[in-house]
Amino acid sequence: MLLAIDLGNTTIVIGVFAKGQLINHWRISTRYPQSADEMGALFLQLLKAETDYISQLKSAVISSVVPPLTDSLVSMCRRYFKLSPLLVDSSVDLGLQICYDNLKEVGADRLVNAVAAYKQHGAPLIIVDFGTATTFCALNSKGNYLGGAICPGVEISAQALYSYTAQLPKVDVIKPDTVIGKNTVDSLHSGLFYGCISSVDGMIERIGAELGGIPKVVATGGLADKIGHYSKYINIIEPWLTLQGLYYIHQRNQGDKNP
Length: 259
Prior knowledge:
Layout: E1 2-7, E2 11-18, E3 21-29, H1 36-49, E4 59-64, H2 67-81, E5 86-87, H3 108-121, E6 125-130, E7 133-139, E8 145-152, H4 154-163, H5 184-211, E9 216-220, H6 224-227, E10 236-237, H7 241-253
Parallel strand pairs: 1-4, 4-5, 6-9, 9-10
Antiparallel strand pairs: 1-2, 2-3, 6-7, 7-8
């Protein structure tokens, strides 16, 4: 079995693969700071909760965009599961040509998503990740990773409105019944939800113009299911795309060891 972990700013996404299939997954909150022992206690609890996967784990792979917690996560894998994880970055064999000015600046999650989306859907392609930030990644018809755009995530926008205004309340991101809000809360819901969709569709149109037409668009991330269905252009929604990408990268780099 393969333990796949995506360490993000807001959540940690965990998956267990057996014979190439994602057989279980979890999404938990990222906490700062967090020691290897604290992570170990939580991971042990999760991996024993339904079926005891621990004794069956043979390898691990990690992507992280949170450098202060990466060492803790690697140490946790080594101490509690006796695994030396493959840590994904631009130096790992991804099977893609990365056309970015500085390869080290590309977030591991964006690379992993690109690998999975290309493997499963071909190219050209646009990938939208609804996470802490809303990110856009573009692959041309040759499958080359061109780059993309990074926007504030919708939950960050909601928090900013609450934090930097005197009278606006804190609200969750939900779809309102109408675009025209009749009160402050409904107006916030409309602005956050439909504003995000309008921004996403506008960015897809602009990226598509540079690609020579709007290709397939894949959405992933914690809010993909909630928001992605209302986009004019998003064709495919895969909340666990990052885990699939981690599996493919591990298979490519350590194939014989991959369970």
